[in-house]
Fold each of these.
Amino acid sequence: MDVFSLEGKVAVVTGALGLLGRHHCQALAEAGANIVVGDLDGEQSQVLASTLPTPSLGVSMNVTEPASITHTLETALTTFSHVDVLVNNAAINDMFESPTMAAELSKFESYPLAMWKRSLTVNVTGIFLCAQIIGSQMAKQGGGSIINIASTYGMVGPDQSLYRTPAGQQQFYKSPAYPTTKGAVIAFTRYLATYWGEVGVRVNALSPGGVRNGQEDYFVANYAAKTPLKRMANPTDYKGAIVFLAGDASTYMTGANLVVDGGWTAW
């Protein structure tokens, strides 16, 4: 089982304070990796780093700013001398300030251009920049693993009926930006895999299914009914996949999209 050990490796995780980001950090650290916890809130990133079972550090990191990413890389190299894993987890999902306006604003016909542009900047350009800056260091080192967090909605269209109450009221629509950006993540993963394959940098995507996180009961029931395993994911359900993609257990795997969705896309 040594191929699942990440001892001696250094992993940068972006969006590390998010629901899944925290568990990505924990999983990689439990497997032996030193973690660079990256998120906008540097203080809380340091707090999370201090709870991990391996020597780790927390940094303030904005994935849309090249200077911020470069600073993260330089800090990692100063502390650990190398970077072996990059988990491109940072992303935004549309939130609407007014629940009464959510259904109207999330409709494609009236979806705000500003929200579209913001999602593209964070979810696509952010991954591009992190891969360009941190991945280039891996290429110089002669190897590494980049894991881009995609989504089932990068492969299939949203089922808008999930967001409909038992009374038939459409609370909101899954807006167009998130599926579009996650589809781009999968395509970008294939590009990088073929570009850097010969220098030993592997690039794969992980497509999670929906995660239980305080959603309305009707939504949880709707989602479970459309999933072969009949439940939403727990945040811990992706820990094994992250460790697998990060290390030698997946040494001959690149350009792939690992789908962990309870069977959501199987029918």
Amino acid sequence: MYNSSMDPRSIGMFDSGVGGLTIWRATRALLPNERLAFLADSGHVPYGEKDPDEVRDLTTRITRFLLKQDVKLVVVACNTATVHALDHLRRTFPDTPFVGVVPVVKTLANRTHTGTIAVLSTPATARSPYLTGLIEEFAPDKQVLRVGCDGLEDAVEAGEARRRTTTALLERHLAPVVESDADVVGLSCTHYPFLRGRIKRILGPDVRVYDPSRPVARRVRQLLEREDAFAPPSADPAHTFFTTGDPAVFSRVASALLRFPVTSSYADI
């Protein structure tokens, strides 16, 4: 039965490109009645090499676009954007609930047995003061490998997640992790879960790999429950996809990653 306190509006999500679809996928699985509006800023990807001020400007414009789509909350489905822009967005749009994606440092610190953890991220996240603060707060007594994985985000974005060249790139970035005592690894870029199978094969069975997709989806559910803002039951909620890049390219890559047909529209932010 429809409850008048329910909120049929969409959940807004954005990423620098297709990586945030890992968050989209987890949210859809956990909240099947919700409509999701996803924007890929493919026209400005990658974020991992941009100045923080530029990231804040882009994410502000994206949020304004999503609010024009009448979304009820916004998921910043991008680690780099969360690190550099989440606080700014919350100050700029104080009436809008936001959910970000943070490196899973606390989880890694709690789960390691060797005392060595590894964080795979974009170069910008790897060198960010935000990550430094998380390490100082949650893993001050751990040895932490920060692995800035240049090129991986671009490979996924280009639809090359399953190519040998991407595997070779992974092997190069993961070499210091393989050579270390790290027994837990965090995927701190939303593009990387699409590479999780090969990451696990390269690292071997004794290394556990964590990504934030399901914790983010659970946080979205918590906010909707707190605000009494769940959508009414729906047999087939309509989802929308936008991109600042080429809609045909985004639709092709997203369809391959999600394994069902995706049709996107151009977003002028």
